[in-house]
Every structure is written in structure tokens, then in C-alpha cells.
Design a protein that fits this description.
2 domains, 9-stranded mixed β-sheet, 31% strand, Rossmann fold, 9 helices, homotetramer, 334 residues, 6-stranded parallel β-sheet
């Protein structure tokens, strides 16, 4: 039985607690929350769980085997490093760290100590993403030509990280998971309407070698909520609308085939638009599967699906994107 | 009575003919179409109109007062120049010309000769854009913070111009019409899946000085058709969905107000989400109003709404966008 | 070559003219329109067609082989009878006649004289209805359990017939076409908000013997336009949304299976919700196929798909429905 | 402090417990649940609440002031009667009872004993219904002309009551709440696909005197989930789509005005279609307000909004509807 300690009981913390509480091989053992006014609610919900006022206490508790860190990004590195050094497995909320250097160090330490280091990229565990992955791997989608994501709404303006650090990790982790190929560079543009250097609206392009492009439109300042990804293959294309309660995926039997004409600069293109399929996907809660994977990785000494290397790659792209924005959209090599 | 001659009876030509035919102060006098197989259909539709096999014949016809050019972009400059030099007023389909230099020359010649030179940016004449313009001008939207357009579908791949030259003129002409301010630079990225240097999918950012940004997502390779613009003001925001048959505009009483906190890096933001209004807009055909404006500009010697200077600005942005794509997304000053 | 004469150039007339004009084995020969103010527009559109001011002239024209009647319902019987008696094939707009007696007489006369008598139930010729028919006939839908139609909008209030006579013929003709079984009775309720005895909102139930029911919700007084039919089979169910431009049909792999439990009044029901398919359907214009069927029926002496017997059955149901409304919803046997 | 006892911890019970637990002037004191396998989960959720295995125990507990009955309909009468007779205030889940007679008796007893008797018609407490009520009462909607509800999905087939008893109470309670006028009769049709006399699909019309009609389309056998009500006034019309997460109400500035023409049977109708408004409505949980109203009614000896008389009227209509179905749609006077 793995004893889990969770640091941070803010927005996401209650969901983490609930889902770790449901695991077979683990137990929600302790929660650390520095805001004392939240303690009563924690006690009501989890009367038998140990309750601490500081992260250090939970890190120093010898009964705790693994620590889940659900605090603001800037604190991830220090807390995770302490936790690893005290011999504890660690799961970090996304994004993994504030920069690439921190991510590299955490990976190094975790691997030297033989500890699991995981990042909670929840979307990898959704039935929708799993179905897309399955369709790509089986070849029915064909070669990927583009990935186009829109993730916008009237969202909480963060005061420490820009909108890409806040929203794009979802989509970047998905594209990294779906495709073996990696982008060689990024371009990004954006604007900080508050003039505080923290963009609330930003556009990111990932450039790939293999005739593929990815684009991300992220905003905290949209009147409508959109959570939509287009995955374009040369055989089929997928529309993933995460707001739809039941019909999240639409698979379009749409494509075009190109045959070079003899005339220079002339292309003959055959368009095809066939049936549309809305596959049935399961209703499991993704976060339950995240928690399960973390526990299984500890028990069976295996790599989680959303491991530290994927987390590191997400941070690498975010860091480059921010650099591109600050350099007026200049291409930044990865 | 102004005698109108139309060059090119392809995709858009029939619509132009029909709408000029309905004008009070003008008469559809002649059509030039080089593809002889289209002549029978033209005769059936417009039995009393003069029918020519070449553009030159119509340009040289002394009865023709004004010429509408609905041919591929690469031919615009030469045809328009000839028409102006033979003393005829000219309306060009969008985009005006293949490059800035050509646009400048046409403007020069038309102004020297005192002839009307207009570009058919049809969207400026739609009830939806007129309503948005009216709301911005009246101040109810507040200061514009962003303009975000998505114009994607499984479209015909053009063999001479990329997807931005094909689709973005609509949206660029709209933003130029709505706002007095002009962008100072552009960034663009894109991909040519056919590897022929003609992008079928591209992303364009316009950078403004006044805390404003515009972005355009254009694609010929989407399984779904989207024609959507978000116009974000600091008082209200508008969603313009051109595919909706009747509810094209949604005006969101959504905004946030920022008050600087005393703590450094801390911002207090008040979010507001109120009612949504779907204003009734008229059903007039925009192209009828385009034709009417062209005729009125000739008759009354006035500038049309969609004049050559706006057409030139669109071309300037497109040219810069293409340069940015070819330079890996580098910022191009305007 | 069949010479077609069309009586009535109101709302639907221009569409009929255009589609008969496109037929190979027929020619749009004459149009009769009593409103003289419409004659100029007819001449502009169809300069070579004979133009009459009265129905009688067209009926007495010996060159006319077949007559299409697109006038108000109350005039159908008299005009059709005259046309048949002068030896002409007849196509009537829906509904066929004002009552059952008239329909019976027309059928009798047409059959005695060996003339084609057809009713323009256009929906039978749409790709959507043909696809549904094909799916039902092939067995993939299973046995039909219900048919539920909603056809509402802010429509023109008719002054001679109620909303069922105006809108329900579409849906009734579809269900009659899809299913061999016939309803044995009807119930209907409705209201005349103008208090003139002509219902602008009405609800119709068709009762079937074979564990099947059909229901129709018709209104001229809805703020939203809905054109939707649910076809429930015991294997699959279809949602037919006629307003959708491209995704008109959604086929749900949804069903339940019942196994009688041993306990009295206890049923074990297995629910199943699988994939959803949006089949690609063709884009042909249904009215072109209507015209083609009329012409082919004359040329080849065959029954059209939408023949007089189907037209009669529609009228029979409408007559019974009106009787039920006037009798407070009482069941009326067919 | 009012001690609340809840009988039945099935589908709805947990929601009731949670919401009573949040009340200021009441305390969730005891739960009775006969299925012992559910007890562990209750203890986990509500460790300090008394847990009983039978309804009688909770009814006989002197510490309990008020009882909430969330059991199948057939058991409502007996349990409520016992509870009232033991001096306890009672809230019943909808529908109140299995028939009118039972409802009358419960009302009689509760009034004789001076006890609160309430029915949980939750929808009366939603922000959407409150907003509609407010718009009707303020006169902006004008006189109501129709009420048209569709409440369909692939729902659980009940084994004791038909689909109207299961789903229509929501819509019937809403129309009774919105309008002072009462229907004078009902017509209903339906079908039992299981042939067990329990309709899984049914249509109900309520007939009113004042130029108004209401219709309800209820089904357990639809592949799509629809929860939609059209409220038609002679000034404005409302579309209430309960599935929409944020835009539940759309208010259409749509109407027609009738002016009698001098000619008999001729009506001049002016149609008007103006703006559409989507009013902002609050996000409060309706069931919290239900619980609050029950507690306040006890504490302040006042009638709850959703009182026993409204509950009785719902049952009266359902009983008449069932009679109408069994009599082939015959009008049943209320």
C-alpha cells in the first residue's frame, strides 16, 4: 500500500484527493495546505487523512511514500527536489517546471535515485485522446499533415505565467503523445493586454520536418469557450471538440490526393468527402487513470505514460515559445 | 446610364452580372469570356448582352464606360492598366493585384486620369460587418483588443496564389475597414503540403501599437467549414459566425477590468459576463451594394467604400505575410 | 418530346419551371399565370415559353401534353379534372386535393383515361429520404418503433387550410413511403390563435397496429425553424435534421433489448449506445428528380414514385386529422 | 434547528442529503435505506448521521422533525401518511402520489394537523424558470399562446409508471407555476413498446380556455437527449434549452399582429422578427433552494412555492392523461 501525500488543496487538489482515495494499491495519507482557512473543508471531506500546514512537514513524514505537488509552477522545482531527495516518488502538476534547466535537474535526480517522476498531463488519459492515438497508430488516419488547436475562454488571468504556460501544455502534451516526430523549431506571437509582460492571448506554431505543422490558439480573453483540436491526416481528419458532452470526436472520411500534371506548376487534386463517424468512447474519469498510472509505476517500477521526459519536452517548447514572443515572433530552434 | 463590361465569367462572374443587371443607373452591356464553351450559358442567361471572346475587345468597345475584372489575380494588373488607359473606370476582384508595385501604379494612373478604381471587398458591404462597424463607432464595444479570424474548409487548392492570398483578403479588408489604426508589422507561418511553395494552410499575425493584435487562421485542408471572427473590445465582444443563416452576430456583454494592486506583479481583475444579444440584421445581398457603390462612385465622382487605397493595403499585408512565411515567420515591417 | 404546361407562377412555380426546363425528354412549353404583374418577370426568365393569362387557355392548348398545377389547394380538383378530361397528364402540387372525395374522382378519371396523375411530394425524391428508405429496406434499422416529426417556424398563416394541410404532407408522405404498414386511426389536437377555425399549431398522432406510432408537431408560430424527424428502429435510430446543410442524417447505433424476467411486471432491459454515423448523401436537387419522374412516367407509361394513390392517402389522413381536431382530439378511424 | 430525516438513498437521495446538509436552520439528522449494501457509502459520506434500515424507524424517531421521501411513487402515500400522523412535516419527491385520491387525503391530513406538505418540483427553483416567470409577470412576453415541451432521451424504462409520470411532472409543474390559468381538459396518446401497458413514449395536450394550448412530447426511447421548452407569447417568445450549459434561455423579439380585413376569411398578418436576447441567469443549485424553502416553510409556518396543491394538480393531470391514453386519446375533462 503506497501512502500518498498531496501538497496544495486549491483548484485541482480536491480532484486529486478524491481520485487517489479511490485507488486500490494506494492510500491518501496526508494533505499539506498552507491556507489555514481551507483546513475545515479538508477535514470534513477526508476526516481520516493527516493534515499539515506546510509542505515540509509532509515531505519529512516518513510514512509518506509518494508526493503529488499541486502548487503554483514557480514552486514546483524546489518542492519536487526536496521530495525526491527525501526518497519520495513525485508527481507534478503541469507544466512540470518554470524552465528547462529545472526539468533536467529533476529528471537527473529522480533517475539517479530510482524514483518515479511523473507529470500530470491529464489529457493523455482521456478516452478521446486514447481513441485518436489508436486511430493514428492503426494507420486509418494516414500521415499527419497538421494539428490545429483552439483553447480559448474568459479565463483567470495568471499573475506568474502567460496563457501558453497555462493552457498550451494540454495540447502540446497531446501532440507529443500522438506523434513520434518532434518539432525542430517554434514561432509564437502574443499580446499582454495588461502590459505586464504576461501574454493573455498567444499563438504558437510548431514546425516539423515531415510535411507537418502544428498551431495553437490560446486565450484568456474570449467571450466563448472553445476546446477544439483538428487532426488532419492524409486519409482521414478528426475534429476533437472537448466541450461536447458525448460526441467529442468526429472522424471525417475526407482527403485529397495529388497527382502531378505534366504541365509545370499544375496539380490535379482529387477531393473526397465521405461519411463521418462519431465513435463511441468510454466515460472513465481521466484523473483516476492518472492516479492509477502513478501508483502502478511505483509498485511495478515502470515508466508512467506521462513521464518526466514528456513533461520536459513540454517545458522546452513553452520556453522556446516565450522566447519567440519576446523576439517578435522569431523562429526559435529547439 | 453607365455601360458595364465584365471580363471573366467563371465562379464569381455570374453573380456580378446578375447584380449589375439589377442596378438603376447602369446596364450590363458586355461580357468577355475566353472559354467559348461558356458562351451558350451566358447567352441563355443574358440574351441582350454583347458577348466577346477576349478582354481586349471589351476594353476597346467605346460603348463601355466601366469594366469589372473577374479573372485570376496574375492578370489583374495588365487588364486594369489597359482599361484605365482606354478611359474606363475599373473594379477589380480581390485581391487587387499580385504585388504592391502593381497596386501603386494602378492607383497613380487612375488618379491621374480621374477614373474610379475600386476593389470588390464584398464583405465590407454585408449587413453583419456594417453592424459591427456601427457598434465599434458608437463606442459600445470599447477599445478593440483583438481580432481573431478562422476561415477554413476543404477548399480548392489554387495553383498560383497561396491560401492567404485566397482567403485572408476578406478578413484583412474587414479589420482595415473597422479600425482606423494600421498594423506596423506582420508575422506568418504556413505549410505547403504539396511542396510546391504554395501554402494551403497558413497563420498570420498583425501587430498593432495600440494594445491590439489580429490573427488569421486560413486553410484549404479542413474537414469542417468555419467562417468565424471574434472581435474583442474592452467593453463588449462580438462573435461573427458567417455560416449561421440568421444569427450571424452574438454580442457578449463580457469584459474584465484591471486594477493594479499595491503588491508588485499582482493584478486584481474583475470579470463580468452579462447578457448576450443577437441583433437583427438585414438580409440585403452584399454584392448588390458593391455594384451600386461602383456605379454611384462613377456617377457622383466620389470614392467608393472599398476603394483602391484599401485594396492596396490588403495587398501590402499579403505581400509582407508571404515574405514572413518564406523567412520562417520573421517579423516583416509594413 | 413532352410539352409541359405549368399553371401558377407563385412561390413554387419558378422552381418547377426551372426544373422542367432542364429535362431531356420534355420541354417547358407554356405557363399560365392570372396575375398580369408577374408576366414581365416570366418573359425575362423564359423568353421562348408561351405565356397565358388563364388556366383554361393552357388546358385547351393542343400542343400541351402534360400539365403541372401549382395553384392554391381549393382549385386543384377543378383544374386537374379539366386537364385530365382534355387528355392531359397531370401533376398536382401537394396536398393533392381539399378532400378525399375529390382525390378518388381524379384517380378514377385518370385511370379510365390511362393518364398519369402524380402529386409533387418532393421529399420522396430527396437524397436524405432515399437513404433512410434504403437503410430501412436493408434491415439495418430493424423494425420501426416510432416516427416523430417536428416542422415548425414563423410561417405564413394560410387563409384557406390549417397548418397540418400546409406542413404535414411532407412528413406524412415520407412515413407512407418508408413503411408498407398503414395507420388505422388518427388523433389530433390544435389551436387557431386567430379564432378563424384555421389551426396555426397542431399535433397529430398516427396509430399503427404493429407496435409503431407516428407523431407530427406542426406550427406556423415558432420563433425557431425546426425541420426534424426521428426514426426509431429496434436496431438503430435515425435523426434527420433537414436544416443541416451537409450533415442531414445521423444514424445512432442505439437500441435496447428486453428480456422478460420471471417476476411479474419485471423487465430486464439492456441499453446499447454505440457509434454514430453521418452518411454522405448526394446533393441532387429533389425537384429535378420529381420532374424527371413525371416525364418518365408519361414516356414509359409507368407509375411515378409519388403517385396519385400516395397523394390520396395523404389527403385521407389530413381529412381525418381535421375531423379529430374539430371533435376534441377524438380518435378517427381511417 | 430542524432535524431532517431522509427515506431512500437511491438516485436522488445523495443530492437531497448534500443539500439539506448545507442548510443553516436544519440538520441532516437521519437516513433510512433498506438496501444494506448502500450503508457503507452513506457512512463514508455522512459519518455523523443516524442510519436506519427501515422507513418506520425514522418515522418513529422522536428527534426527527421533518421527513423527505425519495422512494418509488407507489410507496409515497403510505409513508407520507405515517409520517404526517406521527407529527412530521413531509416533502415528497415528484410526482406526489400515484393518484388524485391519495393526494387529496394527504393534503387533508397535513392541513388538519398544521404540518407542511411539500413536493419536490425542483424546476420551479431553477434560475431559468424564475427568469421566465419574471418575464411573463412583467408583461414583456405578452399573453401566452402556447407552451411546447420536448423531454426525450434514451432513459431508464420504469416498471411501475409510464413515461408521462416519470418525465412530464417537470414540465407540467413549470406551466402550472408560470400561468394562473388552468387547463380544462387533456388529450394524450402513447405506446408501450414492451406491451406491458406502461407507455415509454407519449404525447400530451393540455387544453385551455384563453386561446392557449400546451403540448408535451416525452420519450424514454430517443437516441438524442432533448430538454427543450418553447414559450410563445404574443409579444415575445422564449426558447428554453436546458441542455445548454450557459445559454439556457433565448428570448425572441418575434411576433405577429393580426388585423381583420374587411373581406371575409381574409386576415392581414404582420410578422416581426427582431433581436434575440440571451439573458444572463444565475448558477445557483435549484435543489439547495428546494431544501431551503422546505426548512423556511417549517420555521416560518408558510406555504412553500412548490406546495401540496401544485403537487396535487400535477397528479390530476397525469391521471387524466393516462385515462386518455387508455381511451384512445379521448378528451378527459379535468
Amino acid at each position: 500500500m503506497i501512502n500518498i501525500g498531496i501538497i496544495g488543496y486549491g483548484y485541482w487538489g480536491p480532484n486529486l484527493c478524491r481520485n487517489f482515495n479511490l485507488q486500490q494499491n494506494a492510500k491518501l495519507y496526508a494533505i499539506a495546505e498552507s491556507k489555514i482557512e481551507r483546513h475545515k473543508s479538508i477535514k470534513d471531506q477526508f476526516p481520516s487523512v493527516k493534515l499539515y500546514g506546510s509542505a515540509d512537514e509532509i515531505i519529512n513524514d516518513n510514512q509518506v511514500d509518494a508526493i503529488v505537488i499541486a502548487t503554483p509552477v514557480y514552486s514546483h522545482f524546489e518542492l519536487a527536489m526536496k521530495a525526491l531527495k527525501s526518497g519520495k516518488h513525485v508527481m507534478l502538476e503541469k507544466p512540470m517546471t518554470s524552465n528547462v534547466k529545472q526539468a533536467v535537474k529533476l529528471i537527473e535526480v529522480s533517475e539517479n535515485l530510482g524514483l518515479v517522476l511523473m507529470v500530470d498531463h491529464t489529457f493523455l488519459y482521456t478516452a478521446a485522446v486514447q481513441k485518436i492515438k489508436e486511430m493514428i497508430d492503426s494507420g486509418v488516419i494516414g500521415n499527419l499533415k497538421y494539428f490545429d488547436s483552439t483553447r480559448i475562454n474568459l479565463g483567470l488571468f495568471q499573475s506568474d505565467v502567460n496563457v501558453l504556460w497555462d493552457l498550451a501544455p494540454h495540447d502540446i502534451s497531446i501532440i507529443l503523445h500522438l506523434l513520434k516526430e518532434r518539432p525542430f523549431s517554434v514561432n509564437a506571437t502574443g499580446i499582454s493586454h495588461l502590459n505586464n509582460g504576461i501574454e493573455d492571448l498567444a499563438y504558437l506554431t510548431l514546425n516539423y520536418n515531415n510535411n507537418m505543422i502544428a498551431h495553437f490558439n490560446c486565450s484568456w480573453t474570449s467571450p466563448v469557450k472553445v476546446r477544439q483540436i483538428l487532426v488532419g491526416g492524409d486519409k482521414k481528419m478528426i475534429l476533437y471538440n472537448d466541450i461536447e458532452p458525448t460526441e467529442k470526436l468526429k472522424v471525417y472520411d475526407t482527403s485529397y490526393a495529388v497527382s502531378n500534371d505534366e504541365e509545370k506548376f499544375k496539380f490535379l487534386i482529387d477531393y473526397r468527402q465521405g461519411d463521418i463517424l462519431i465513435p463511441k468512447i468510454s466515460n472513465h474519469e481521466a484523473l483516476f487513470m492518472v492516479a492509477k498510472d502513478f501508483v502502478a509505476s511505483i509498485v511495478d517500477s515502470q515508466r508512467p505514460l506521462s513521464d518526466s521526459h514528456l513533461g520536459f519536452e513540454v517545458v522546452k517548447i513553452l520556453e522556446a515559445a516565450e522566447k519567440s514572443i519576446k523576439n517578435n515572433g522569431k523562429e526559435i530552434k529547439l
